[in-house]
Amino acid sequence: MELATSHIAVTGGGSGLGEATARTLAAHGARVTVIDRNKAAAERVAADISGHALELDVTDEAAGSALDGAISSHGPLRGLVNCAGIGGAARIVGRNGAMPLGDFEKTIRVNLIGTFNMLRLAAERMQANEPDAKGERGAIVNTASVAAFDGQLGQAAYAASKGGIVSLALPAARELSRFGIRVNTVAPGLFLTPLLAELPPEVQQGLAASIPFPARLGDPAEFADAVIFALTNRYLNAEVIRLDGALRLPPK
Predict the structure, then answer these.
(1) CATH, residue 109
(2) Which pLDDT value is given to residue 245?
(3) Which residues form the Ketoreductase domain (predicted)?
(4) 157-196 pLDDT, tens per residue?
């Protein structure tokens, strides 16, 4: 994929890893649609990078019409980066009894179903693109987490949602290969996102000390660099990239 001539949508683009990705893509010349549930956040980032802001719930089954509007403004959709997601922690059986089923369902719905929803809608539009000189019509990058492999106590819902995204990479890549669409996944470790930035400095330092090398929290720009690699390396397909400084999460 040639970023300088491509229209790429980024979900969760109003903050954190999504914002860093949107800004990096724009710096490489891409036309970026910034998708976020927070309209003000999407508009702020889009204004900074001369992009297109799109207020959207990634779990909305009818989100395709909104994508069509972005395509009308910025041209054929060549890339999708799924960064939208939620965290949260709760034990399967805690002090107040069993985890409310609705809490588990919400995490799966936003993280896993939201990712699949945007993937299917983007792929439907990408398959109609004219292939480039090397036969590619598009590329998709999903965001998982090291929790998919090293889920900690209290992360049953989150780890399950991210594990589903990891498992999605291969069958999606196989199925969409006939259209010339690649699918890859980045599984980040501990990154200095707005959520972690709210923690006290001593807590941040403790988290950083658990990372072998470099012994610090990841910079969202480093995540964005991994996304750029996944989008532009034409031979990378169905891969899950752990981006974690060799971190392996302990049970708690």
Answers:
(1) 3.40.50.720
(2) 97
(3) 6-189
(4) 999 999 999 999 999 999 999 999 999 999 999 999 887 8
Stated as kind and residue range, the H or E segment containing 187 is strand 181-188
Alpha carbon dihedral 71, 76, 79, 80, in 10-degree steps, equals: 30
The reported pLDDT for the residue numbered 168 is 98
Residue 206 lies in a domain: no
Residue 231 lies in a domain: yes
> 177: which DSSP letter?
G
- Which residues in 132-166 are b (16+ Cβ under 10 Å) and which e? beeebbbbbbbbbbbbbbbbeebbbbbbbbbbbbb
In this structure, the number of other CB atoms found within 10 A of the CB of residue 7 comes to: 21
Question: Model pTM?
Answer: 0.96
Domain count, the chain: 1
List pLDDT tens digits, range 103-136.
999 999 999 999 999 999 999 999 999 999 999 9
pLDDT at 150 over 90: yes
The verdict on residue 247 lying in a domain is no
Is-contact 217 191, C-beta < 8 A?
yes
Q: Which structural domain, as residue segments, surrounds residue 230? A: 3-192+220-241
Which member of 42, 74, 145, 158 is catalytic?
158
Residue 235: active-site member: no
